[in-house]
Amino acid sequence: MELEEMQIVWSQMSAQLEHQKKLTNKLIMEMIQQRFKAKIGIISKYEGMGAIVCFSAAILLLFQMEKLDTWYLMAAGLFTLLYLIVVPILALLSVSAMRRINLTRNSYRDTVADYVKKQKHFLLTQRVAIYFNFILLLVSLPVVFKVFKNEDLFVSNIQLMYWYIPVMTVFLILFSRWGYGKYKSVTTSASRILEELEAPGA
Amino acid sequence: MIQEEQAFVEIIRKNEGIIYKITRLYARDEEMQKDLFQEIVYQLWKGYPAFRGEAKVSTWMYRIALNTALFQLKISKKGGNKVSMDGLILEQDHYDPVFDERLQVLYASIRKLGDVDKGIVFLFLEGKKYEDIAGITGLSLTNVSTRMARIREKLKRTIINS
What we know:
The structure holds 2 protein chains of 2 kinds.
Chain A lengths: L2 H17 L5 H15 L5 H18 L8 H29 L8 H42 L3 H4 L1 H41 L4
Helix pairs in contact in A: 3-4, 4-5, 5-7
Chain B lengths: L1 H13 L1 H11 L3 H18 L9 H16 L24 H15 L3 H11 L4 H8 L3 H21 L1
């Protein structure tokens, strides 16, 4: 169908729609209220649940810190504690910045650009978190052993670290690639729109 | 507040056709169409306090509705109850199968275009000038006219191929 023909059909449809009024005042306000309810509290299912788990673990660890009686266990404990607090906060902040994109103020082009920018920031946060995950992997096990079993892993059971580290590293690499890939595909599709908007002659 | 609410509701009722047309273009099925319709109304409500009437109501609506259509499918999560709407379909006083078929072909042709071009064609079919399309989308005038020429070619090629 060519554009001129499309225009004829479109105006015919628009004329018919003019006579077809389905919305009532009540229905419109109900739509707004339902949406509003649906949005309250939704930051992100995964990041939200992850943050709760991390904060709970941080509180638990905070009250057990005195059990960490050597400098290296104390250092590992402090890193774990900071990780459990800072990383979820960073993730939640960048997710909420993304969700706060204002669809009502900017033009189509500016909105896409804003979205891509925030997504890139979010991906950067995710990348940083992935690197920290590897450090956490190394330092958290001795802390857990000391806190829950009152055992210094470096003294009593260093062999455990020899298989734990490679196994968990493989798991972490696979999990990170999967998670990061999922987030990245969303950004890529938005970036494609942005490229399309910026390069009409391409 | 009540006055503001009434004014907003009036605007939506007067221009519900715009929302209907956009949702039909961007949504894949009726369920998604209802969801998008509701989201557009919500976004318009959110943006209403900042709307000071400097632009035409329809221009303001096109901008927000197109933004929402583009992003609803990408970032928003479906959630909450859907308000019951009696089927988002075009009711014809006298059902005309020929017109209905042409309408299907029209939508099918536009849906073959990319998200951005879809929005541009929509605005063009709504009778917007290139300047208006540029204003609503944030694209330059040259960009819009280049795109329109390419869309025209693309649509022609679709006819030849089919």
